[in-house]
Hints:
Layout: E1 39-45, H1 64-71, E2 74-76, E3 79-80, H2 86-95, H3 99-102, H4 119-125, E4 129-134, E5 147-151, E6 161-164, E7 167-170, H5 175-190, E8 197-202, H6 239-243, H7 273-283, H8 297-317, H9 321-356, E9 363-369, H10 388-391, E10 395-398, E11 410-412, E12 416-417, H11 421-428, E13 456-461, E14 472-478, E15 481-487, E16 492-497, H12 515-531
Parallel strand pairs: 1-8, 1-9, 2-11, 3-12, 4-5, 4-8
Antiparallel strand pairs: 2-10, 5-6, 6-7, 9-10, 13-14, 14-15, 15-16
Residues 46-47, 85-86, 107, 137, 154, 207-209, 382, 467-468 line the site of 2-deoxy-6-O-sulfo-2-(sulfoamino)-alpha-D-glucopyranose.
Amino acid sequence: MKLKDAGFAGASILASVAPLLTGCKEDKCHKCANRKPLNIVYIMCDDHSYQTVSAYDNRFIDTPNIDRIGAEGVRFTNSFVANSLSGPSRACLLTGKHSHKNGFTNNEHGIFDGSQQTVQQLLRDAGYTTAMVGKWHLVSEPTGFDYWNIFTGQGDYYNPVFVDNGERRVMPGYATNVTTDIALEWLENGRDKSKPFCLFLHHKSPHRTWMPDLCDLDLYNDVVYPLPSNFYDDYESREAAALQEMSIVKDMNVIYDLKMADPEGEIHTPGQPGLEGAGRSMYLQHGDKPRPGRMTAEQQKVWDAHYGPIIEKFKRDSLEGEALAEWKYQRYMHDYCRVIHGVDRNVGRVYEYLEKHGLLENTLVIYTSDQGFYMGEHGYFDKRFMYEESFRTPLLVRMPDCCKGALRGEDVEGFVQNIDHAPTFLELAGADVPEDIQGESYLGLLRGDSRGWRKSLYYHFYEYPAEHCVRRHYGVRTERYSLMHFYNDIDEWELFDLKKDPAQMHNIYGKPGTERVTRRLLRELERLQVKYDDPVIVENGR
Ligand code: SGN
Ligand code: CA
């Protein structure tokens, strides 16, 4: 899809291949035309699907502030992650390396080794001041930052605990607002203004359980979200797709996920006794009155005024079967989109700050997510799979205004992955990119130069056995095909022709007529496993 089809207004279309900087004699973009060093603001959400960024897809929600970054910069139409899970994705971002190299393969057992080479430390060595604000999720204490102020674990939506350079503190308010406040405070008063800066601003939103800001609770009340065509996927020919536990119908809990904790305790979730317990305990942390954990009494009052009537109606309606499934989908989407609205508003606050202080002139601004997410496609919520919805991420990048030759209001189609940010930042800073970094700088793509750019991507997911039961798998994605191998307590290959089957419903692995393409893809997979030095080797002839 071109920008104009996605509703990008007023995009200026410049020559596709142009020097990045006016007056800059070298290819490295580390100083703007008026010699001010270039800053980096990297905004990353947690579980924000590209389907709910209106620059990509306007079926669900408008995100004008997020979209503006792409409208004044570029929209990557092929942005992917290396391992679709929070901790691993963050480790890929900070190291520029795949999971097997940075050592953080999964959330359950991972502890990030902060003594290894990281982009923040390399930027610091190059004269930058660096900050990390918001969701960290790498277990060990952050290293290489001049300032860090992070959530504990996943963080909480209301009155979250932050660890401010080692000191724990409850921050009153709503997570997305508080995270932005902390980041803006650092920009205004915390940083060393004699140095260029790199700010990682990582929201916890819109992670499960999708709790909106109080002021957004009544948004979209009348919206009916379109059910994905494959919501009732039967997973025929896809064993791993069937074995997961992230189905809206069977695994999404009405109490825990959809906030239907009634004061009388009459709502039950048949067939999910364990989850029901977890859900109720979350709501019952403060005595016998159901309340979502950390809220103050005033916050709770507003919350209850919204959910109370929905709970009452839900009890009266006694939904079953497809009616219950579709009610769950609507509730999920309402809350998810309300959380995104809060993110979009806060992205606007950051943009306005940068604009007001003249920083758009010399600051690279990025909006992305730690991975994609399912909006009911295949009947799912959550991520993990190499299927498109969770393998892809939104990625909008706005080059500093001083970079006159940079693309503005255009699409970039090159395949990028989250291991590419680190080398991009280093090149932008004029620093050397160490040879062991596996990602590639995409600065060239930002000026329309895609010569020699990669044509395939490697993926590897490890977190199993674990929550949601998505089997371990690795795979290769080319422009047209996606090939994946699920392993561990399963041995299943899946191959999709994305041109004929973009929703990935028909596994054609082993089907007559696919022999040649399969051989080609297996060779490519093996090439990437050797290139990235992943010890998992493709068995011959599979
Ligand atoms: C939590 C969620 C899961 C989610 C993981 C990983 N459950 O465990 O649904 O897949 O995080 O998410 S919850 O009941 O605790 O919300 S990640 O984005 O941090 O990797
Ligand atoms: Ca995530």
